[in-house]
């Protein structure tokens, strides 16, 4: 009998087609979210799950599991929606999709760096709203932003995505400094300057971009105690997870012009983000689209499917989390 696989959300067509060949699969063709309470009941009829970051696979999910489910292959590099410790206890493998999204997340990070420094949100709104013709032409004030070239980009978390961002930012003429749990080898550092102390790095950067996973250690890594260390022209960029930022601290800094701007692709409690962000001209927001290109979503979907293949063919998993 073919192993039974449940795919919680719509994934790329060719990944679904590949899966169909060797597995007994249930697809979510209309892409309606499956309520969390239903997911664990469904799991008891399947040998494997292909999940996404939209699914809540927390402790409750595992408490009702009957032992049939053996693997959860997540389409996504982040897996903060899955209770990893519990999966481990239940001997359920979890895989993710690292590397294949590095470039697309780096692209969105660069977009946010440029959008915030050059005030693209405000500029776009002025044209779209028809207000441009009423603006006083003003050489020194109208939509004047900050240059990026020559500026220091401070990266928190110099993993695969952080390093890709560094590479792209260098191409824009930025200087890279970083804070990480450990100093990288010279080769991986590639000219970036290491700060073992985050506070010291924050005082020295023009842009701060966060690229850490969402863990207890990184929760509110940017907070009311350290945000004041950024210079007044400082810009905060976040394409990792909302939980790394204490919203009250960032909103206060933006509202009171303690920093220049923020560019955010991810939020606490998304999509129900703190609405105060939307009232701010100096905050450029996106709806969590870091990995959202056809190419990357296909590669992510394929990688999850390949992990399923490896598991049921007794081969080493490509990207095992536990
Ligand atoms: C990930 O892979 O975790 C991304 O945030 C999803 O877009």
Question: What's the arrangement of secondary structure elements?
Answer:
Blueprint: E1 4-7, H1 13-22, E2 24-26, H2 36-43, E3 48-52, H3 59-63, E4 71-75, H4 84-89, E5 93-95, H5 102-117, H6 120-128, E6 152-156, H7 160-171, E7 175-179, H8 186-189, E8 193-194, H9 198-203, E9 207-210, E10 235-238, H10 247-255, E11 261-264, E12 283-285, H11 294-312
Parallel strand pairs: 1-2, 1-3, 3-4, 4-5, 6-7, 6-9, 7-8, 9-10, 10-11, 11-12
The structure holds (2R)-2,3-dihydroxypropanoic acid.
(2R)-2,3-dihydroxypropanoic acid binds next to loops.
Write a short abstract of this structure.
The chain is an alpha/beta fold.
Explained architecture:
- It is a single chain.
- This protein is an alpha/beta fold and 322 residues long.
- The protein folds into two domains: 4-98 and 294-312, 3-Layer(aba) Sandwich (Rossmann fold); 102-285, 3-Layer(aba) Sandwich (Rossmann fold), CATH 3.40.50.
- It has helices at residues 13-22, 36-43, 59-63, 84-89, 102-117, 120-128, 160-171, 186-189, 198-203, 247-255, 294-312, and strands spanning 4-7, 24-26, 48-52, 71-75, 93-95, 152-156, 175-179, 193-194, 207-210, 235-238, 261-264, 283-285.
- The strands form two sheets. Strands 8-7-6-9-10-11-12 form a seven-stranded parallel sheet. A five-stranded parallel sheet has the order 2-1-3-4-5.
- The structure holds (2R)-2,3-dihydroxypropanoic acid.
- Residues 53, 76-78, 101, 290-291 line the site of (2R)-2,3-dihydroxypropanoic acid (DGY).
